[in-house]
Amino acid sequence: MPSKQARVLGPYANGDKFRLVVCEGGGRKSVVVTTRDEAQRVKEQIACMLGARPRLTIGEALAEYLGEKQQHGAVSSTIATLSYKLGQFLPGATALVELTPARAEQLYRDETTRCGRSGRPVAAATHRGLLRSAKGLFRWAVERGYLDRNPFDGVRPVGRVNVGKAQLRIDEARRLCAVLLEHAETDAGAVAVLLQLMLGLRSSEVLQRKVRDVDDGGRVLWIPGGKTRNARRRLLVPELLQPLLLRLTAAAPPERSLICGEPGRAPGPDFLRHRVHRYCELAGVPRVCPHSLRGLHSTLALEAGATSGAVAAALGHGSFAVTARHYADPDTLRNTTVRRVGEALHQAPPRRPPPALSTAGLVEALRRLPPAELAAVLAAVGASCGARRPGGEMDAALGPGSQAAPACRAACRAACRTAAPRRA
After folding, report:
1. Cis omega (within 30 of 0) on the bond before 11?
2. Averaged over 94-110, what is the pLDDT?
3. 221: phi then psi, degrees, rounded to nearest 5
């Protein structure tokens, strides 16, 4: 009978301490430690010593995790972002099994007080997103059998997330656009900002464009891929931007970067942020981030009457829910709803056609008319009531080209047959 694989059981409460049970070679041995966290750490160490699982560092586990995500279709920009952020957040040289829940909690608390490049503490959305990414990494490690539990499971996010970026007012956006057009002939950065404002592009979608993406004489801009599966799209370029794009593509090789920060060099990640801040100051409007222009694009499009589905598609979103939550101004959404309700209330209800009468019903109605009114009705359909005529004369009076309906013809014949006796 084959021997069972060596394993570690527990921890179990043992008075005010905690006990582990090591099963190996048919025997059992207990190990008692002071705290649950210490018991968990010792358990992982013993398991690695017994060869039950490989002893990976956090950095090695992260590399394997990102490799699997890439195989499952994650785009390169997502992989690079996760690698950078988690690599900065987690102690890569530490063994995976040595990260305790207490240490995970402390790592997150330190992140919430860290100051970013602006000199201010990082936003709640930033450190909450980092916590979600860390939980995802360690959840994967548990599924792979590298850990028994996720040390980040008990870490609760803090802070209130501010949904959406501050946006320029409509008049401010017009002033910014005018300044950008003034400088677009001499600065490719101004063209880049105009693309983001007028087409609603992500910063990466602007900076990664190639010369060959400008198509059909500058009328079309291709976005072959991006952050999500919905990022692939073909956008029509406004007329005032077409000559600016053609100037950037003139005599340039197809694979060259469309927007160059310096001659011959692709722009860096801070290129757009610096350009947006510079032109906001020149236009005398509040400084906003590049991503805010993407939200402003959706707000202005909805104000102009674009449908929610069209706006979401232009931004590369799978549904309008993402657009509404993170991009469009809430007041614009409310005003659009109010406008549609007002239009619905001002529309006159459709008129219903009168119920159709049968031949018998029409005859009965004609018979009830006074002689003068009956004569007027018969005259209107081309019949003469001055004398009694046979049915054939009635057909001749109406004529083959008459517009009277067949039911009206039959009713008029019957009325003519009864009209003479009534007059007599």
Report:
1. yes
2. 92
3. -125, 120
